Amino acid sequence: MARPRKFDETAVLDAAVDRFWTQGFEATSTRELAESMQMTLASIHNAFGDKRTLFRRSLEHYLNGSLRARIARHEAAPSPAAAIAGFLRESIERSLGDGCRRGCLLVNSALQVTPADPEMRDYLNAELATIEDFFRRCIVRGRQSGEIPAGIDADDAARLLFSNLLGIRVLARVRPERSLLEGAARAALATLGLPPMPDI
Amino acid sequence: MARPRKFDETAVLDAAVDRFWTQGFEATSTRELAESMQMTLASIHNAFGDKRTLFRRSLEHYLNGSLRARIARHEAAPSPAAAIAGFLRESIERSLGDGCRRGCLLVNSALQVTPADPEMRDYLNAELATIEDFFRRCIVRGRQSGEIPAGIDADDAARLLFSNLLGIRVLARVRPERSLLEGAARAALATLGLPPMPDI
DNA sequence: CTGATTTTAGATCATACGATCTAAAACGGG
DNA sequence: CCCGTTTTAGATCGTATGATCTAAAATCAG
């Protein structure tokens, strides 16, 4: 019978996410992680494997509690148009509410992957694609129900919303100004004939 | 009379840009830079200062030969609407033409700045802002001349184009697919009543 | 109690990192 | 020639890095 673990997995993964999110993978040392996670280096290695594997686990943890949950919640709403608007509103509020101005761990990480790690790139791409797909499904459903006016090609509309959100995510880290983030989202919604973002 | 330099500054800065662009600042070691630049570590330090200063110099070099030159060229064109469309077309073609799929050094770097370096963040933000300003100037001038239809607020239109371009830049690194990049740009242009991107 | 197993704690390893040091080289001036 | 200055070359430094090692601790079963 082995000695029981002293750490709470959720708590330590939260701590790891926090560090990686703020500083990025490369600039975060294993000692800094040990400090944040309140674990020794050996314990981290025992429990999570090497640094890259911990990073991967942290991403997964972040996505489960963040992007995936939010897409599911918004998509469960009866109105596809309002789902888009609400998703954008929530994205902006979360970013603006982050005192550390970290933007989005997924987007940050996607840009930091080096060519030496195509597996990580593909993983991140698959996750990013869930955003684009969410937008597309909403557009298609909204047009079928007549809630969203026909206009440009549905694929292109989804791509516009996708790139718009990615841009907002970039700005959330480097220039988190409400007028800028809201203006970009408001314009995308308006030009696509979608309802405005709900007020908070 | 000092010993003359052996290196060509432009060539070595090109080499540094290449490395930083591909791998990012943190993941690129000074020894890798020395190899690429065909200079010793001490010579690099003598000529350019520490790693961060070299990075800054490399960014400046990249921007002079890239973003700044392109904004100036497109803005000199007689048609503000065509300037926007042409700028987007060029951005996409440059990204898709890059076999290393590096995206945009400016955007990549902006996301990699850690909170410990606000000065670098501000520098990068100022550079990014020149893109937004370019779009705004074109929108305003195009509307004055009647070439661009009135629609949503000019500031918001500029923000939409800006976030759209940032998103395209992100995708240029992580998922450089022509249909995706072109679709996002095409949708932004179409919904703002702008002309399509010129064919290549 | 011993044994098996996993976890923790602290030290340590092998290597890499950014940066610096020493000395020779390269140049023109006097 | 010597001198002054900067650059180059190669070695080295002090520290940090990701990872590992050793041994004690914690647990239940027999």
Written description of the protein model:
- Chains A, B: Residues 6-66 form the HTH tetR-type domain.
- Chains A, B: Residues 29-48 bind DNA.
- Chains A, B: Keywords: DNA-binding, Transcription, Transcription regulation.
- Chains A, B: Pfam families: TetR_C_13, TetR_N.
- Chains A, B: This is TetR family transcriptional regulator.
- Two copies of one chain form a homodimer.
- The first copy, chain A, is an all-alpha fold and 200 residues long.
- The first copy, chain A, has two domains: 9-51, Arc Repressor Mutant, subunit A (Orthogonal Bundle); 66-191, Tetracycline Repressor, domain 2 (Orthogonal Bundle), CATH 1.10.357.10.
- Helices cover 71% and strands 0% of the residues of chain A.
- Chain A is built from ten helices and no strands.
- Chain A has helices spanning 9-23, 30-37, 41-48, 51-65, 67-75, 80-96, 105-112, 118-144, 154-174, 178-191.
- Chains A and B meet through helix 7, helix 8, helix 9 and helix 10 of A and helix 7, helix 8, helix 9 and helix 10 of B.
- Chain B binds a DNA duplex (30 and 30 nucleotides) through residues 1-7, 29-31, 39-43, 45-47, 50-51.
